[in-house]
TrEMBL record:
UniProt GO molecular function: nitronate monooxygenase activity
One Pfam family here: NMO
Keywords: Flavoprotein, FMN, Monooxygenase, Oxidoreductase
Signal peptide: none
Keyword Flavoprotein (UniProt): yes
Protein name according to UniProt: Nitronate monooxygenase
EC number, as in UniProt: 1.13.12.16
Alphabetized InterPro entries for the sequence: Aldolase_TIM (IPR013785), NMO (IPR004136)
Amino acid sequence: MSETISVVERPERDEAQPRLRTRFTEALGIEHPVVQGGMMWVGRAELAAAVSEAGGLGIITALTQPTPADLVKEIERARTMTDKPIGVNLTILPSISPPPYDEYRRAIVDAGVTIVETAGSSPEPHMEMFRDAGVRVIHKCTSVRHALKAQSVGVTAVSIDGFECAGHPGEDDVPGLVLIPAAADALEIPFIASGGFADGRGLAAALALGADGVNMGSRFMCTVESPIAQSVKERIVAASELDTNLIFRSLRNTARVAKNSVSDEVVQILAAGGRFPDVQPLVAGARGRKVFEDGDVEAGIWTVGQVQGIIRDIPTAGEVVRRTVAQAHDVLTRRLAQFA
């Protein structure tokens, strides 16, 4: 179970920005327990570097880059913007024509990256190379049993995704309020909470439930440095927590996406007994990419979490990190202190 966090006041030269030191920050060598999760088409150098420069952990998404060589160039670009640690996400999924995962893995190691976020399938086949290269692995999980498996194969930390999250929440439908303390009771390694986090209240709550930090995706999508179209960011700000759809439920491959005409149609087709080939043209990844690049929020399906209901502005990524930590510090040291 997680150890008690320590609240540290920063030196005056750093404008007394508070710091929350946890097992996760110590294990990863970062300043704040705030991670920008790897997101397809979103995790690029500008965003990752801005998060890391502010003291969090920014993550570049490997498969957003068309080739391993392009990934190396993207990592190098990020390093021109910050000298702080940056991670790389490698999502491993079954596919008829899978990407060259081994080549991407080699590119990550050869580029000198020391933090990797894995997701999808088990990271076990990749652990030997990463371990030999001194790479610390954070594996994304949607259940305690998967987190325990990841712990057993030697990852440094896990990220626990509650049912509120964007993308694939798994098939157990367990929200963070239950999943986070369940993970805290079971795990020995540090873990961060994901799904439903956008500010310092969420960070303080995650820490209180036993997590060692938070992973925020939708919140960082909606920042100045995020590479998605401005109209998509504005749609997130305008949306409520009710404006998502769960698709692929009947296919046992549930995904949480933005509610729009396309995802509504996918839900209707599958609810009427349709199968994947019936919706495949609607859910094509190229259409989702078009949403982010062109700004037409009805062009395809795109992922966002229920947390969009409490995202109300488009600040810089650095401001998100700083105010999240400051607000969590205030909750932990002032608001909750009245009950001590």
